[in-house]
Specification:
Blueprint lengths: L2 H26 L4 E14 L6 E10 L2 E6 L11 E6 L8 E4 L8 E5 L24 E11 L5 E11 L7 E6 L5 E3 L14 E7 L6 E7 L4 E10 L4 E4 L5 E2 L2
Antiparallel strand pairs: 1-2, 1-4, 2-3, 4-5, 6-7, 7-8, 8-9, 9-10, 11-12, 12-13, 13-14, 13-15
Amino acid sequence: MSFLDNVSQCGEKYANSFNKYADHCISEMPSDHTYIGRVVDKETYKDTYSNQTLIKRWLVAANGKSYYVNVENADIKSVGQSVRLYIPNNNKDKAFAEVINPATAPDKIVYKENDEDYDDYKEYGVDEKRGITKDDVVVDTIIETWNLADKTELKRVYVMTVINGDTPDEEVTSLICPDGKQIMLEGFRISSSKNDMKVNSAVRDLSDSNKDKVTISYDNGDTYLFECDREETDAKTTLTNISEYWKSE
């Protein structure tokens, strides 16, 4: 290796070392810093007066490091939430955090029926007055996802408790929001689509020479009427120009 090559390598090593030292000095300067992080753990303690287990501080992972945030300095509700972490004057002891609540629409929304990953929420659907037990409840979820600027994702999960799943009497009884609040629902019945039901019978009324008046009886007991044009062959019967059907009295 030539003398010039040795000098060049030494120069590169010095430059790299200087850049690392400069970055370290900047990161340690007494200035304000803001990072996007995620809550990864919590520290609890036993309150001697109430005998309850309370949260003392949250552990936030951000910028390749871990930071403790006192519970009174954050609006954090649970592990896994994404937060903006503020460190005033680079003083970790004074760090505070706020949960990220996007003002924009999510990048993706996924609906999942009978989501067994959230079966722990079945207890929210128990209703002693209606005789609904945990075994009667299934859980559906709606998961919203935002793609954040630091290449991470923010997810918010809405959990729905459902009874009589996959039947004409399917009903959503409550909605658990991402902040843990439960909203009780009434009248949220999800009846099966008429296209998914078995047709028990179809009765024609040919009193109108131009139109067939067809009565459809579905397997859930409902009866509907509609008008249509009818074309018959030996192999099949075709109904076309079907009007909007209406429920029979």
